[in-house]
Amino acid sequence: xxxxxxxxxxxxxxxxxxxxxxxxxxxxxxxxxxxxxxxxxxxxxxxxxxxxxxxxxxxxxxxxxxxxxxxxxxxxxxxxxxxxxxxxxxxxxxxxxxxxxxxxxxxxxxxxxxxxxxxxxxxxxxxxxxxxxxxxxxxxxxxxxx
Length: 146
What we know:
It contains four helices and no strands. By secondary structure, the protein is mainly α.
């Protein structure tokens, strides 16, 4: 077919055919958007799981090191004071450090946000606007059939 024949055939498509094509295209586009969102979510989940695993390993090692350092601090303080007082001082310092870490961690969690769903919603809205414009342009160019 020539370009002119292709254009003539396309201009004579019925409104029903155009709407059917538009619906199929919109469904395909939505399907692709959802597949993209799923892939992004899976990628984020993999990173979160890996991060949690590394964090857990670090916590285990840090606890072992903290135990050794605590014993060292108590032994050092025991040289100049009773053992119970040295243990009390080290314990209070550790509780204060832990409280500061909890406060910092909580503030970081509050700042965290997920952008993938927001991007998905924005993309779907853009698609809907493009479909409306396309439909309105196609409907306006169709001759009225009475």
